[in-house]
Amino acid sequence: MRHHLSQSELSTARFAGLLYLVIIVLGISSELVLRAPLINLSNAQGTAESILAATGSFRASLAADLIMALADAGLAVLLFALFRPVAPTLALAAMVFRLVQSVLIGANLMNLQAAVLLITGGQDISALAPGQANAMAALFINMHGHGYDLGLVFFGLNSLMTGVLIWRSGFMPKILGAGIAAAGLVYLIGSTLRFFAPEFSAAFAPAYGLTVLAETAFCLWLLSAGWASRRLRVA
């Protein structure tokens, strides 16, 4: 068990924290600020009109998600480098699962792009009945939501592994590992409900508050890795 990080590892941790901050900020902004106000899946016509009136915001949400996926891939590699001395095989497995999530999130953006093409006339819809294009666009948006949750299955498994790595590391607080592992369980349960028992998804939604708290705490620890490591050395 290690109780401190080298200077190069501290730099890796801080850069990882910076990427994590980018992921948190862009992830929340793209979904809650830019996209959610425009979408009502029970009203395909109204959703299409909202997106058409704010196409720039909708496309900005795609750009934010793309940058987030790229940052997530970079973070996966940095966390592997940080945790490899703790447990090489487990660290590698965690990186692979996080990279799979990044790929799924990036590829899943094509569903939103398809919706934009249908709504803005970027795709020939002359063969479709009136209103059918909007209904198809709403379906693609709904598929994006399900695709995102599919990615969270892999991220949930990554979080469980990362929680174990933190717990065993010796240079991070064990409570942080417990929080990240608990967040992984929330992601796994939430995604399972989305696919197999969607009627319970809304009731479970408040549990995602735990994931925000745990990941924000992890991000802040990484950003302040030098200070935290010095405290552990003194202890």
TrEMBL record:
InterPro entries assigned: DUF4386
UniProt entry keywords in alphabetical sequence: Membrane, Transmembrane, Transmembrane helix
Chain segments annotated as transmembrane: 12-34, 62-83, 90-110, 150-168, 175-197, 203-223
Pfam family, one: DUF4386
Domain of life (superkingdom): Bacteria
Protein name according to UniProt: DUF4386 domain-containing protein
